[in-house]
Amino acid sequence: MEPSIYRYIFKNTYRDQLLLILLSAVSLPFIYVTLEIPKRIINEAIGGKNMPFSVLGFELEQIQFLLALCFLYLGLVIVNGGFKYVINVYQGVVGERILRQLRYELYTCVLRFPLPHFKRTSQGQIIPMVVAETEPLGGFIGAAFACPPFRAAYY
Fold first, then answer.
1. Per-residue pLDDT averaged across 130-140, rounded?
2. Tens of pLDDT, residues 88-106
3. Which residues contact 94 (CB under 8 A, 6 or more apart)?
4. 2: Cα within 13 Å, side-chain hemisphere
């Protein structure tokens, strides 16, 4: 076992963690545009100072431009939701996978205890020690490296 939980996580899941960080980095431009569109809706489409609006060579009136921005915003919200869903599901998969491996390693460590220790200790104490005590680590393991960059986009 590694002395640090971060070292253990990175040693066993560095490819998955790098993929999660990459997914987070790919989602950042979409998050930025999603935050920028409402400003455009208020300032340009509702304000309507530069009429008509030229978008990709098409002339749009105020209502058409407002609708185009609203549909663009809706599409970006759906895309961001998809990114969040994929990242969260993959974090769960990574967490459960490494948690299974951690439980296996703990179980092998428990089997190294001296035999008289097993005679004094009930099974009701050993099994929860391996299963229930490691359960909170599952969510932490999946989000240990990928969550900070993803959350940084909102702050």
1. 76
2. 898 888 888 888 888 888 8
3. 13, 16, 17, 20, 141, 142
4. 10
CA distance 34 to 28: 10
Residue 24: which of 113, 148, 125 has the closest Cα?
148
Contact 25, 149 (CB under 8 A): yes
Each residue of 14-27: pLDDT tens digit? 888 888 888 888 98
Spell out the residues 6+ positions from residue 96 whose beta carbon is closer than 8 angstroms to its own: 138, 142
pTM of the shown model = 0.76
Cis geometry, peptide bond prior to residue 29 (ω within 30 degrees of 0):
no
Q: What is the CATH number of the domain that holds 12?
A: 1.20.1560.10
Q: Domain count for the chain, please give it.
A: 1
Q: Token pair for residue 24?
A: 């987070």
Q: What is the dihedral of CA 39, 43, 44, 46, to 10 degrees?
A: 110
User: pLDDT digit string (tens) for 18-54?
Assistant: 888 888 889 889 988 999 999 888 887 777 677 777 7
User: What sign does the CA torsion over 148, 153, 154, 155 have?
Assistant: positive
